[in-house]
Amino acid sequence: MRVDVRAYKEQGHLTVSGLFSDAEVARFRQHYMRMRHSGSYPGDFSGARAEDSKDPLKKYPRLIHMHRWDQLSLDWLLDARLAAVFRQLLGREPLAVQTMLYFKPAGARGQALHQDQYYLRVQPGTCIAAWMALDDCDEENGCLQVVPGSHKLPLLCPVDADTSQSFTDVTVPLAADMQPEPVLMRAGDVFFFNGQLIHGSFPNRSESRFRRALIGHYIDGAADQVASYYHPALRFDGSQVALDVSEAGGKCGVWVDTDGSQVLEMAGELA
Ligand SMILES: O=C(O)CCC(=O)C(=O)O
Questions:
Q1: Which of 160, 48, 63, 164 is nearest to 114 (CA)?
Q2: CB 104 within 8 A of CB 210
Q3: Which of 66, 174, 206, 208 could cross-link to 178 by cystine, CB 3.0-4.6 Å?
Q4: Which of the 8 DSSP states describes residue 77?
């Protein structure tokens, strides 16, 4: 299957429709619902302000790094179809570092706009995500939102997020002419996006619909450093790669008004 590499490079994202079948998606849904209902796992995270007992994410916290202890998750993370898309988009296979499962039940908060590289701190290069919809997603159930082309920006300095809308507590400010756009997807579609792309999601406003997603995070195949939380990195054959831990800190961008327009100045320091 050929994918539109030019669109990916221009926009910083690309949807590959129907990459996984209905039967596979049904199996993933059943597998992760069973996993969620049968206990708690390292890294379960229901978010900032999670003390609110009515928060739906209390019952459905995000799962993380399941590939470290769940074979189905590892098999998906290293699936040959994902590798084939990556080879086209990047010219080589990346290294796999993370899985996550977002359940996002009805009424759940979203995740404020952010850049993944803020967390992964890949050097050199950046990260890339494969975000697979396990339910059809649209604005009602809190689909992904992205700012097309924003992958060309450096890391922006984070500010506090509104935790009534987001289960994470940091976000990035947008310039006045930047607007997030919804990413409408069918279950089984996979959305690939660059680690600098500004993205996130709004709350699930539906009465009863889940918006489940299986997410893989990968890093540039030539990278030699990533933040410690993401070790070990894996090749697509499952073997581990020894990388260094990237340093915290570095410069980040802030929007500054200059003669009526906003420009980005690298005036801030990352924590
Ligand atoms: O699924 C969402 O709502 C946000 C996911 C996300 O931000 C990510 O995978 O980095």
A1: 160
A2: yes
A3: 174
A4: H
Report the pLDDT value the prediction gives residue 103, as an integer from 0 to 100.
98
Substitution candidate for ligand 1 out of 115, 119, 120, 131 with most atoms within 8 A of CB: 131
CA-nearest residue, atom 7 of ligand 1: 200
CA 258 to ligand 1 center in whole angstroms: 33
**Helix, strand, or coil (residue 145):** strand
Q: From the alpha carbon of 114, which atom of ligand 1 is closest?
A: 7
Q: Is the CB of 15 under 6 A from ligand 1?
A: no
User: What residue's CA is closest to ligand 1, atom 4?
Assistant: 200
Q: What is the pLDDT of residues 27-53, one digit of tens each?
A: 999 999 999 999 999 999 888 876 677
Q: What is the dihedral of CA 183, 180, 156, 229, to 10 degrees?
A: -30
The beta-strand segments (E) located in 154-250 are 159-160, 170-171, 181-182, 190-194, 199-201, 213-219, 225-226, 233-234, 240-241, 244-245
Average of pLDDT values for 258-262? 88
CB of residue 213 inside a 6 A radius of ligand 1: yes
Q: Partners of 188 in the beta sheet?
A: none
CB 134 within 8 A of CB 33: no
Taking the C-alpha atoms of residue 64 and residue 25, their distance in angstroms, rounded to an integer, is 19
- The answer to whether the beta carbons of residues 213 and 48 sit under 8 Å apart is no
Q: Where are the domains of the chain?
A: 5-269
**Model pLDDT for residues 175-195, shown as the tens digit of each residue:** 999 999 999 999 999 999 999
What sign does the dihedral 86-230-161-60 (CA atoms) show? positive
- Torsion, Cα 117 122 124 130, to 10 degrees, reads -70
Decide: 168 in ligand 1 pocket, CB within 6 A: no
